[in-house]
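Researcher: I'm comparing several assemblies side by side, and this is the next one on my list. It has 459 residues spread over two chains. Same procedure as the others: predict the full complex and return the structure.
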Amino acid sequence: MPLSENEMERYSRQIVLEDIGLKGQLKLRDARVCLVGVGGLGNHIATQLVAMGVGYLKILDRDIVAVSNLHRQPLFDTSLIDYAKVEAAKKKLLQINPGVIIDALPVSIDYETAEEAVKDVDIVVDGLDSIEARYAVNAACVKHSMPFVYGSAITTVGAASTIIPGKTPCLRCIYPKARDDELPKCGTEGVHPSILTLISSIEVSETVKILLGKEPSLAGKLLFCDLTDLSFDAVEIKRSERCVTCSVPNGGEERVERQGFVEICGRERGSRVLMITPRGDLNLDMEKLHQVVSKGGYKVGVRGDVGLTFVYDERTKVSVLKSGIAVVTTRGSEEEALTIYRHIVVDKLGVSESQVGVVSSSKVVS
Amino acid sequence: MGEVVLQVPRFLSSLFKGEREIKLDASNVRNMVMTLSDRYGEDVKEKLLDGEGRLKAVLNVYVNGKNVRFTGGLDTSLNPGDKVTILPAVAGG
């Protein structure tokens, strides 16, 4: 189907570009993109892809909007604090461009969900903040021969590379054994908004090139940028024949287990932010959750389509997402947070302990 | 022993008096770090190695584009003409 008059006008400034043109615009309209993570990088990536008219965007994120996100994540504003990020992002993105389709999934990325993420899309774009989650996406992309545009940023530095399975090095070839607990984190080290817009724009540029059938510029290269002196270093990287993900058959990639209980550091002053991730998607009945919370006498703060935030007591605020993921902001202990979660999800909503999974020891992430 | 070429990314260039390409004799990556430390000062070791003398977890050394963590880390052999570079792993977002 040709572009409508409305579409011609909306996209006129990029259709006129030799690099895109009318044919390119039609390809973008037919394109299906998965964006993993709609935080600092993902906000800008989603905005650009949707504004440019990419026809279908699947967004995944497990987090809720926090006030400390707002200096760098412009899809969100003060009124959206405590909403699920994917829900808040989807609403804003559809205001930017109602002509696209957006699937918003409030899930955590692990090896299982990464498999779902790469289904029925043409390309996967990285908006994550965890190397271990990236490894999961990288493995799924290698397995399904799916292009994966890697990008990351912290403080004033950023990196990007375009992974074409079978042709270029994969993320494991670039970073074989990185671990989140050994790398700097945005929550403690900080991040300059400008490095996020820079790296996300590079990721979008690479994504669009691939969608239009052009050669990406960062295939087989690792770009490293530093805002401090506005330096750009592009290093040629080669596939490793010892890579357990993309070269050694049944290489036995070490899979980081689902972290049922994670502490997010540097988010709320004076309180701990604890994220509880059940085993699998619980697909909670949000209406029932609202009833349970209301009948329990808890004050509902934010009621969204895929998330509900309520005040449990003067020390604790809880956000529960449709997937069963919960973000607990508390001045209490981990045990208390788990007890509250079990009270609502297991006792009141009837989810079995086995579905929730064992969640005990916590791990600190950004 | 043979002359290898260290391509210094700009973020590390202050360690090496602003030089962006350094030629030196080194038989392996560890030997390269020690030679650089002798030439440019102890800061080099402090910046690149952890307290136990291992390559810092956040850093990656690439020899001819291949990460040395696959090939013995600091013990990875170097041959004349090899191109070496050092970049940090970046994982935020």
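Model: For your comparison table: The longest strand of chain B covers residues 83-88.
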